[in-house]
Amino acid sequence: MTNTTHTTTAPAPALSPDAAAGHDHAPRLNFAKAAPKAFRALVGFDAAAREGIDPALVELIQIRASLLNGCAYCLHMHTTDARKAGEDEARLHMIGVWREARHFFTGKEQAALALTEAVTLVSRAGVPDDVYAEAARHFDEPELASVLALILTINTWNRIAVATAKVAGQDERAR
Questions:
Q1: 20 pLDDT exceeds 60?
Q2: Residue 14: pLDDT above 50?
Q3: CB count, 10 Å around CB of 56?
Q4: Using CA atoms, how far apart are residues 151 and 119, in angstroms rounded to an integer?
């Protein structure tokens, strides 16, 4: 004979989708105000990284990294910027699945997206030689350095926005 004991517990409180995903945050610090020198340095690094890179490619890189990092704030900002710059809506929808929709992107864009993924997810497998070689095939050294710098800056911006719980749709640049 088996002795079974049934216990009842109160049901878990219902959480909003944001709270359930861990996004129901109390206000956090304003990084730009709390660390103005670091913020200005990053703005300068970001501006320098963009030099010489096609603005459409800048947005593709920033959108892909923001998707990978789960940064809704930056994703909203950069998809909005891309639309304002005339980016095709279909391409914006395909960035997250670009490998299955390669015909939407040039070889150069595909190489940049692959490099963005490798650098953004560097702790998983480093930057594979074939990914780096393909990027180097499409970009000369100064361009490749700029693409790498851009990938580094968007990853930093993503981490700041996620860590400080920035809210998507509240782009502070417009203020």
A1: no
A2: no
A3: 16
A4: 7
Please name the residue that has the structure tokens 């004991």.
5
DSSP, res 85? T
Q: What is the DSSP letter of 88?
A: -
> What would the two tokens of residue 78 be?
């950069």
Looking up tokens 């993924």 gives 117
By the 8 A CB rule, do 80 and 111 touch? no
* Helices vs strands, H then E, count in the chain: 10, 0
* DSSP 8-state code for residue 139: S
131-157 confidence digits (pLDDT tens): 999 999 999 999 999 999 999 999 999
Residue 40, token pair as written in the block: 């200005």
Q: At what angle do helices 141-163 and 129-138 cross, to 10 degrees?
A: 120
- Output the average pLDDT for the chain: 86
Cα–Cα distance measured from residue 117 to residue 17, given in angstroms and rounded to the nearest whole number:
27
pTM of the model: 0.82
Residue for token digits 């940064």? Answer: 71
Length of the chain: 175
